[in-house]
Write a structure and sequence with these properties.
Length: about 350
């Protein structure tokens, strides 16, 4: 839990925020951090009452190390054994704060899978999420994350992009191949938060991207929001993947045979297209690349051999009258004929 705190060391005062608090000590966000072994006085003011105790810095995180494990720079402080009345008052206040915080935590009803190769990150997130009412399963590599998801479907997944065995992007792809996992919201985290990295994650199906370092409160709020969203039926993801693995002609043929209804979203580079289907038939197609009728858009999209796709269920804004009357099979045959004629000329 977060709490304003004042540290006094070597005659200097530092105003900061706690990131973790327990009856034995606290972690305080502070940059640059104090040295290990530094004796400090700690001041908190719950309800306006100024309380003071003493402690010692037991570990310090600089900018580089903190970024590596997804934390902010700061120091871990262990409280001294109480020897004065003020120490007792400080300890009692901490206990009341923790009890009030625990009473506000809901019963664990949201299952989350957290995957990160750094055990310290896993421990920190697991503890915070567990305290916030989540049922937490952890994984240190991509295969463990996939296994945890398949053993029991989670409500939300938090996965590091760069992991051993298989990375977070592969986890996204594999989840998209399973009907029971395709709709599970996935939050990806990474110290590399460039536009290209974010775009690739979103194209593969990530619902959120959390740059490192982050606060655990930020993760808790986002995870709870996405878990609630994933429990709704409208817009439920039925399937997602890459066109390099499953081409658009094969996708549309499968949807026609299975009489699928929903909206197929396809992205490539900076373009996006939408195909609305009813009982396996295409009723409308739109594209940011081609401003044309549905038939012309489909002919253009069938030339896309790379990109990402996502089929979602639910009632979309379909036209009262279909824009297309031809079957998928007919459209594919027409596209093949047009490509054959183009090659001959």
């Amino acid at each position: 839990m977060s709490l304003p705190v004042e540290l006094i060391a070597g005659g200097k005062k530092f105003r900061a925020i706690t990131q973790d608090l327990s009856p034995l000590g606290m972690f305080v966000r502070l940059s640059p951090p104090l040295s290990v072994g530094t004796e400090v006085q700690i001041v908190i003011s719950p309800n306006g009452q100024r309380l003071l105790t003493s402690g010692v810095v037991t570990h310090a995180l600089g900018e580089v190390e903190a970024s590596t494990i997804g934390r902010f720079p700061g120091v871990g402080i262990v409280f001294r054994e109480p020897v004065r009345a003020s120490d007792e008052l400080f300890g009692d206040a901490v206990k009341r704060l923790l009890e009030a915080h625990a009473a506000s935590i809901p019963v664990a009803d949201i299952r989350i899978v957290v995957a990160d190769p750094q055990t310290r990150v896993l421990e920190r997130l697991s503890t915070a999420l567990d305290n916030a009412g989540f049922s937490v399963a952890t994984a240190t590599n991509g295969m463990e994350a996939i296994g945890a998801c398949l053993s029991r479907t989670p409500d939300v997944v938090l996965v590091e992009r760069d992991m051993p065995v298989v990375d977070g992007l592969h986890v996204l792809q594999e989840m998209g191949r399973h009907a029971e996992l395709a709709n599970v919201p996935v939050m990806m985290m990474s110290a590399d938060a460039t536009d290209l990295v974010r775009l690739q994650a979103f194209q593969l199906g990530a619902m959120d991207f959390i740059p490192k370092p982050f606060t655990v409160l930020e993760v808790i709020l986002r995870a709870r929001r996405w878990a609630r969203a994933g429990q709704r039926d409208v817009g439920r993801i039925l399937l997602r993947g890459t066109l390099a693995e499953l081409g658009l002609p094969s996708l549309l043929t499968m949807f026609e045979q299975e009489r699928k209804s929903g909206q197929l979203s396809v992205t490539r580079d900076h373009f996006v297209a939408w195909i609305d289907l009813v009982d396996g038939r295409i009723v409308r197609a739109r594209s940011s690349e081609v401003d044309a009728d549905s038939h012309s858009v489909i002919m253009s999209l069938l030339d896309w051999h790379n990109g990402y796709f996502e089929l979602s269920a639910g009632n979309h804004d379909r036209p009262p009258k279909p824009d297309l009357e031809a079957t998928v099979t007919h459209l594919l045959l027409e596209h093949a004929r047009l490509r054959d004629e183009a090659q001959r000329t």
